[in-house]
Amino acid sequence: MRWRAPPRSGGLGVAAMSYVAVDYLRRLSPAWHARLQPALWSVLALVAVSRVPYYRHWSAEFRSALPFVASMVFMLLALLFEALSVRSVTAVLGLDWHRDTPPLPDTGQWLLLASNEKLPQTIVDILRAPIIGLHHFLMLFMMLAFSVLFNSVEAPGLGLGARYMFTMAIGRLLRAITFASTILPSARPWCAYARFRVPAYPHRWAQKYYVPYASDADTIRKIINLDIAYADTGSYLGEYRPDWGAMSFLIDFLRPTVSEGSSWFSLLKKAGGGCNDLMYSGHMLVAVLTAMAWTEAYGGLSSVFVWLLVMHSAQREIRERHHYTVDCIVAIYVGILLWKMTGFIWPPKDARRDRRLLKLEKIQSRLIQAAKDSDMDGVRELLKEVELSTHEKSSGRRSKWVMWVFPCATIFSALTIVLLAFTWTSDG
Predict the structure, then answer these.
(1) Are residues 108 and 159 in the same domain?
(2) What is the structure's pLDDT at 2?
(3) Hey, is 226 helix, strand or coil?
(4) Which domain holds residue 360?
(5) Where are the strands (E) in 121-206, listed by range?
(6) For the chain, what is the mean pLDDT?
(7) Is residue 250 part of a domain?
């Protein structure tokens, strides 16, 4: 992993810590929070907009726009698939199973509870404090991506965003496939009963292939040996089957009830979060990807601060029984692995190196001659040409109005995404 030294001003790290501190004021002083948070948002937005005319890499951003949009579409499709998996896993055994099945023992939580009795109360209060949440990590990444306007992060910012979105989408797909293939007891057994209105009894598949063999070790051994469902289950309990047209195949996965079965899309929208999405933690995946992006793109002490926030968030997930310890641990190393695997998207190191080498080959003879003539001004001019060639090619072929409309549209869209991300994820 590459650690970059941040600019001497360290402005991005200060802005990140200020954002987290101001947002935590909602717990300490709601009145001051109501004053300071809009002011901080306005200052950050105005500073970013003021840098738009001086940004030199809009051509690179233009080329990264399509991959960024494609990554966003891929991310939305991954979230749709995850929502389907969450609802299916929660619904297949029915609410009675969720209510009656105790959660698994978690030694990580035991250690945290034991530490409460050993550590000073001040430290325990800090560990329990809701300092950081999902929306904070998303906003920290937004601030990191916007910092390309100040040359704090290597351009293009949309390329960094595309890598972040693409990596998160891959992580979400893997997560959905993982927990859709195995149904584990929830860390919060009350959650499914509070959030979902699925039938209380198991799905007909579970009635045939699971329920008759789940209560006796001998029947489990017998079905393994026979490799066939042998129990006489009689008549299955029926399912409510609304007319969803071409999407009717989703009925077996969503298990709608009469009170909520009019629209398959409304069921998927309510499936976010779930109660069996245990392996691995989606919150921790977002946190780790943000920390990895921050470490690689900016580095310095501020990235250490972000990793400390990740660790704080992990222990709170375990402490508050939102996830088991294994869910957080797996999310950490899966997030690191996935981020390292998507390095081909950003930053474009190889392309810049190739352009520099190509330009050096073209001016090699002129550079040697200028050095022989002790023409230092000429050497400087030639090296300046090499440096300019390192940056993205000129956008002269594109009309000027396109290169003015594109930055304005990009900034407006990015700020809109920031607002929507904060609004939709502010509740965790």
Answers:
(1) yes
(2) 46
(3) helix
(4) 353-390
(5) none
(6) 83
(7) no
Confidence of residue 56 (pLDDT cuts 50, 70, 90): confident
Q: Are residues 135 and 110 in the same domain?
A: yes
Q: What is the DSSP string of 8-44?
A: TT-HHHHHHHHHHHHHHHHHH-HHHHHHHHHHHHHHH
Q: How many CA atoms lie within 13 A of 375 on its CB side?
A: 12
**For the chain, what is the domain count?**
2
Residue-wise pLDDT for 378-414, tens only, equals: 777 877 776 666 554 444 445 566 667 777 788 888 7
Q: Do 361 and 319 belong together in one domain?
A: no
Q: Alpha-carbon distance 111 to 117, whole Å? A: 10
Reading phi first (left if > 0) and then psi (alpha if -120 to 50, else beta), residue 340 is in alpha
64 and 114 assigned to the same domain: yes
> Is 207 contained in some domain?
no
pTM of the model: 0.84
Handedness of CA 150, 151, 156, 161 (dihedral sign): negative
Helix (H) or strand (E) holding 390: helix 376-390
Residue-wise pLDDT for 247-268, tens only, equals: 888 888 888 888 776 788 877 7
pLDDT at 415 over 70: yes
Q: Is residue 232 part of a domain?
A: no
283 and 375 in a single domain? The answer is: no
Nearest-CA neighbor of 184 among 68, 54, 93, 58? Answer: 93
Distance between CA atoms of 47 and 43, rounded to whole angstroms?
6
Is residue 122 assigned to a domain?
yes
Are 295 and 376 in a shared domain?
A: no
Please give the torsion angle defined by the CA atoms of residues 12, 14, 19 and 25, in that order, rounded to the nearest 10 degrees.
180
State which H helix or E strand residue 398 sits in: none
CA-wise closest residue to 314 among 335, 288, 336, 275: 288
**Contact, 319 vs 112, CB < 8 A?**
yes
Best CA proximity match to 178, nearest among 77, 286, 345, 326: 326
Give CB contacts under 8 A, 24+ apart, made by 345-353: 345/67, 345/159, 345/162, 345/163, 345/166, 346/154, 346/156, 346/159, 346/160, 346/162, 346/163, 347/154, 347/159, 347/160, 347/297, 348/60, 348/156, 348/159, 352/390
**56 shares its domain with 142:** yes
